[in-house]
Design brief:
Layout: H1 2-14, H2 21-59, H3 61-68, E1 78-88, E2 92-102, H4 107-137, E3 143-154, E4 158-167, E5 173-181, E6 186-188, H5 198-217, E7 236-238, E8 244-248, E9 261-265, H6 267-270
């Protein structure tokens, strides 16, 4: 693992980072055809390897067991903790974990996302240190922040990463998500899933209906009376069952005690608006 981290650090220094992720998506699509040709060339070598694998399985139960624990090629794309920023003082505490994606064929996308995660975490740490010093100058006070990540989905096709920032003093929180097509090696955006903008109203109306139903059956749940439509790039991810999950930050659609809120959108509600059912099923 330490070797992987060293490789990642070298990539950060040596890989040029484009300004916009949209550029990365377009480039990934263009490279897809090229990778297909490369993959065909590799098949000859894979054929020889397959013979060796079959021989190994037939002659060694230990080898067979070990092989069964090796993930498929698509699932080799993983997330690990690249580095951490920590402060532990009496009135100031920070715990910031920086994720890094590894083993993507699309090194430009990998580097772009990893650089984004690192730069956002560095800024969060820098802002925290400034706030801590200001409080000390003005007579003291408490300051605290915690940031990390969750792997929401990790299967042969989809990798969805959720990143969060939580203030441990005033309960402020914010979540962001990235959903990646591991097979085709590009970032999936919410608009890219749909034929046109009709998904905005379809999803919004369903969420409003879900909030009403939830409050009917559970008196402990409360949502704002008036909930605005989602925006075109609303936070989302695709879960392990292939369902679209729409996400809201704390206070966005409900009182603070409800925390961050997620809604699983029934596929039949948006089926006619989907470009395809490759991702959302």
């Amino acid at each position: 693992m330490s070797e992987q981290l060293e490789q990642l650090k070298r990539k950060y220094k040596n890989t040029p980072i484009p300004n916009e992720l949209d550029f990365v998506v377009k480039k990934a699509l263009k490279q897809k055809k090229k990778r297909h040709v490369t993959m065909m060339k590799r098949l000859a070598g894979i054929g020889v390897a397959a013979i060796l694998l079959i021989a190994g399985i037939n002659t060694s139960p230990t080898f067979a067991k070990a092989l069964s624990e090796v993930p498929l090629i698509g699932s080799l794309v993983k997330v690990l903790t690249f580095t951490e920023f920590n402060v532990d003082e009496n009135t100031a505490k920070a715990e910031i974990k920086v994720p890094a994606i590894t083993n993507m064929e699309n090194k430009t996308l990998e580097a772009t996302l990893n650089n984004k995660y690192l730069e956002e975490s560095k800024k969060l740490y820098s802002d925290f240190m400034v706030e801590m010093e200001e409080l000390k100058k003005n007579g003291g006070g408490n300051v605290g922040v915690k940031s990390g990540y969750d792997v929401k989905t990790d299967n042969d096709q989809i990798l969805a990463i959720g990143r969060y920032v939580v203030s441990t003093v005033n309960s402020y929180s914010k979540y962001t998500y990235d959903t990646i097509d591991k097979k085709n090696q590009f970032l999936i955006t919410l608009p890219s899933l749909f034929k046109d903008d009709s998904y905005v109203s379809l999803i919004s109306e369903n969420i409003k209906e879900q909030t009403k139903q939830q409050m009917k059956v559970d008196p402990d749940k409360t949502y704002w009376d008036e909930i605005d439509n989602i925006n075109k790039n609303q936070s989302f991810y695709i879960n392990d069952e292939g369902k679209l999950v729409i996400c809201f930050d704390k206070y966005e659609v409900a009182p603070g005690y409800m925390g961050a809120v997620e809604f699983i959108i029934p596929t039949d509600v948006i089926a006619d608006a989907l470009v395809s059912k490759e991702y959302v099923k």
